Amino acid sequence: MKLERVLPFSKTLLKMAIEHGDIAIDATIGNGHDTVYLAELVGENGHVYGFDIQDDAMKATASRLSENGLSGRVTLFKESHENAAACLPESAVGNAAAAIFNLGYLPGGDKEVVTKPQSTIHAIEQLFNVMKPGGIIVLVIYHGHPGGKQERDAVLEYVQQLDQKQAHVLQYQFLNQKNSAPFIVAIEKMQG
Predict the structure, then answer these.
(1) Residues 6+ apart with CB under 8 A from 141
(2) What strands lie across the sheet with 47-52, from one edge to the other?
(3) So what's the pLDDT on residue 110?
(4) Which of 28, 47, 84, 126 shows the greatest Cβ crowding within 10 Å of its Cβ?
């Protein structure tokens, strides 16, 4: 058996959750790689909503979407993911198939601008409420930067207390990796 690495596994989870015509959310658009992937998965009739607070992330993602002819499938918000629920249209509530977070800082960007425990947990709570039954939230947790371990610990504490009748929570990580290797936490909303 060949174990999938962390980033390919995050894509596998998204691919299993999303069908053409679905709604998906990129809670931390970063350089736009996941946003493009989500836009491809939702197809022409689906839609992706993306969030980031940094101008560099907005520009990089918009450029990447344009290069791939996917701009029409995505709405970007220069807004923190903790305000996602206020930005999403009513039609998204209860209908989102998947969301992804990459916690930490923008690769190639300002390493002082990082995701924070409280805003991340608030965003997870909101996005869980907009997921449809069977929807999934994927958190790729980078925790090797200053403040990363605190966010990791807060997120793990939060997800472990989720009611098992409402959500399945998975942690996927390679235990023998050095240097605070990233890992995944996935939250699947239970069927009604």
Answers:
(1) 103, 104, 151, 152, 155, 182, 183, 184, 185
(2) 74-78, 47-52, 23-26, 96-103, 131-141, 183-189, 167-172
(3) 79
(4) 28
